[in-house]
Amino acid sequence: MTSASAPPAPAKPAPGRGPARGPARDVAGLGIGRALGFVAPALLLIGAFLIFPALWTIYIGVTNYRLTGVEAVSPSIVGLSNYTKALNDALFHNALWLTMLFVLGSAIIGQNILGFTLAWILRRTRPAVRRTVEGFTLLAWILPSTVVAYLWVAFYDRDGGTLNSLLGTPGTAWLIDYPMICLVVFNTWRGTAFSMMLYSSALQAVPPSQLESARMVGASGWQTLRDVVFPHIRGHVLTNTLLISLWTANDFSPFLLTKGGPNHESETVPVYIYNVALQGGELGYSSAISFLLLIANLLVSLVYLRLLRRRA
Amino acid sequence: MRSLSRVTTAGVLGAAALALLTGCLGSSGSGESGGQDANRNAEAKKVELTFGSNSVKGGKSSAGATFISDVLIPKFVADQKGKGVDVTVKFQGDGSDDEVYKQKLSLDLSNKSGPDLFQIDGIWVGEFAQANYIKPLNDTVGADGKVDEWDGWKQIPEAVQALGSYNGQRYGVPGGTDGRVLYFNKKLFQQAGLPADWQPKSWDDIISAGQALKKLSGVTPIQINAGTAMGEATTMQGVLPLLVGTGTTVNADGKWLGNNSQLRQVLDFYHQIYSTGLGDPVLQREAKGRDKSFAEFAANKIGILLESDYFWRSVVEPKEGVAKMADRDSAVGYALIPAAKPGGGVKGQDFVSMSGGGATVINPNTKYPQQAWEFLQFMNSADMVKESLDGAAKITQRSDVNSEVLKSDPMLSFVAEKVLPLTQYRPGLAEYPKVSAALQQATADIVGGKSTDQTASAYQKAVETAVGGKDKVASN
């Protein structure tokens, strides 16, 4: 994303130098003190609402804190035992596996492919048509997730649900028999609009002349996509995939559709955290799992950022 | 190297912040106040109280919420006005699942806030007491005999008082109690050639009635609550009534139920129902399965259902029920729950039941402990208890009221006279909810198709973890 006219690498102080005072002054001509003054409100808010709760979660994660019972009176520090418990917890492993399936199926594959295909098709339509379609598709993304979730619960419902009438399969309990497939379809549908919009704008950056030349040399549709289009939009693909993967991994809507059931078959990590914390009252253990989820998200982000940088 | 040192700095900062936090938490944790003055604000002329309950007008337990906000509170306010005290009572209704309500309360209470008085399930009393969220009434209101002298206690049977007690001390005043029976649809029974005064004498009798009902199309013969989606309903309206029918209880001789022959007998019975098409396994796994089973019973699609008298009073009740049956009185039959075999139930009984109920307790951190206790007495006076029924019949905590109001309802008289003498209460121990969760999981496994042996050994492991050791679990 860096253009040729960017200021000389302010984010990378020269190796082996002393304090970064020089560059900081150079960027906007401000002293450190004044600069801190400007960012202080934001830092305070971030500290109060992000860093403090995060540190608190880490702390609770090493205690045996429960909502009720004896441990609620005087929680004590139990070291890393919540983490070792997670390592041996079959339900947590199950939740991790289901979360990976959910991310892979609905975000990395579903939303990406469907979003790109829609954008690719719409690119050739008249602007009025494109805007209308985009508007309608975006509705799915704009609507509150609770509303969308309940619409889908009704859609999948065993008795009188739309899906059963459409397929002529009365009495099929989709949410019970195929809970993960239901969730993947639901989340693909809901998140596709975002990917479509992103790819729509990305595709505008592909120079028409290159597409034209590809057509002239007789490149097939796939070759054009692979050799002309993708190199231009690779950054967008990675950014989009990172964003939607993180959103999906942290998504709580599975709870609204299935509560994680039946029998833990659709219990993704956020739902498991909820169930452990608020149904079982085990705040310590659930905090430890939350922290593990945070670490997993950070690792995924690092991998993507590395890929992005390699591309740049 | 550079990035390493950056990481180190961040780590050191993080650790420092953590240490700081730990210090803070430690001090706040140890700031537990020892007994407060029970007479604080006793002479106050302007008083504000909040009453918390998991009921809401037009929603969950609507009748209860309506009574509290429209009758009880105004009457209490008027009563206090007569004594020269200006009281405002705010009703804090809730309409959540019981588990969610419990966790919300726990969070409030752990922060020393929450309503001044609130209703809780009798089974939470032990847990809340252990967590110091509630204290014996004598501690909160004062140990000078005020609580023990209340004349209401004489009208509340010992067994019912246990709903608000823990370790022999009174923590709250119990509300009513209940009992469990087998409901059956007389119309379906007639079609299947079964008697209208059906009374099974063993589990085999239930199964054979189910097999007769199975011949009717579109009918689920038997629904016995199972699985995790229904929470405590599975334990109370499924596992425990069956378990006492095998001759044991969930906590016998100080040990928790493990993988023993009685547990396997219960699981086998579930297996028999849900693997042979006598029950609908899907209904048991749905998030809203219990509500759906109510609706199906009311729509004449379920033959036999194990439920509490709540089902009669609030579900199929013709006017206010959530799944009204206009012809309830003629169409719904009820029978005692038989032991697995005659004489095979707990204490050698032929028939069994389980009971539960709630209690109203005072928040130890209330600003007005004396006025809260006055409210509690007022609420549980014979007049108010009678008035809370609003003409309906319900098993109340007070014997004097019961003998007067239950005459009008044959089903509830049946529960009061025939079921309550046979009934069992759940142990008021802090580990109970975890054991209950393990039992729910076990039935979920059976409904999901696992074998009894597999399920029973998984349950054994779960319950050992839940109660903290093999030695606390009875298995064979």
TrEMBL record, chain A:
<dbReference type="InterPro" id="IPR035906">
    <property type="entry name" value="MetI-like_sf"/>
</dbReference>
<keyword id="KW-0762">Sugar transport</keyword>
<feature type="transmembrane region" description="Helical">
    <location>
        <begin position="283"/>
        <end position="305"/>
    </location>
</feature>
<feature type="transmembrane region" description="Helical">
    <location>
        <begin position="95"/>
        <end position="121"/>
    </location>
</feature>
<keyword id="KW-0813">Transport</keyword>
<dbReference type="Pfam" id="PF00528">
    <property type="entry name" value="BPD_transp_1"/>
</dbReference>
<feature type="domain" description="ABC transmembrane type-1">
    <location>
        <begin position="97"/>
        <end position="304"/>
    </location>
</feature>
<keyword id="KW-1133">Transmembrane helix</keyword>
<keyword id="KW-0812">Transmembrane</keyword>
<feature type="region of interest" description="Disordered">
    <location>
        <begin position="1"/>
        <end position="22"/>
    </location>
</feature>
<feature type="transmembrane region" description="Helical">
    <location>
        <begin position="35"/>
        <end position="59"/>
    </location>
</feature>
<dbReference type="InterPro" id="IPR000515">
    <property type="entry name" value="MetI-like"/>
</dbReference>
<keyword id="KW-1003">Cell membrane</keyword>
<comment type="similarity">
    <text>Belongs to the binding-protein-dependent transport system permease family.</text>
</comment>
<feature type="transmembrane region" description="Helical">
    <location>
        <begin position="133"/>
        <end position="155"/>
    </location>
</feature>
<keyword id="KW-0472">Membrane</keyword>
<dbReference type="InterPro" id="IPR035277">
    <property type="entry name" value="MalF_N"/>
</dbReference>
<dbReference type="GO" id="GO:0005886">
    <property type="term" value="C:plasma membrane"/>
</dbReference>
<dbReference type="GO" id="GO:0055085">
    <property type="term" value="P:transmembrane transport"/>
</dbReference>
<protein>
    <submittedName>
        <fullName>Multiple sugar transport system permease protein</fullName>
    </submittedName>
</protein>
Automatic annotation (TrEMBL), chain B:
<protein>
    <submittedName>
        <fullName>Multiple sugar transport system substrate-binding protein</fullName>
    </submittedName>
</protein>
<keyword id="KW-0732">Signal</keyword>
<keyword id="KW-0762">Sugar transport</keyword>
<keyword id="KW-0813">Transport</keyword>
<dbReference type="Pfam" id="PF01547">
    <property type="entry name" value="SBP_bac_1"/>
</dbReference>
<feature type="signal peptide">
    <location>
        <begin position="1"/>
        <end position="19"/>
    </location>
</feature>
<dbReference type="InterPro" id="IPR050490">
    <property type="entry name" value="Bact_solute-bd_prot1"/>
</dbReference>
<dbReference type="InterPro" id="IPR006059">
    <property type="entry name" value="SBP"/>
</dbReference>
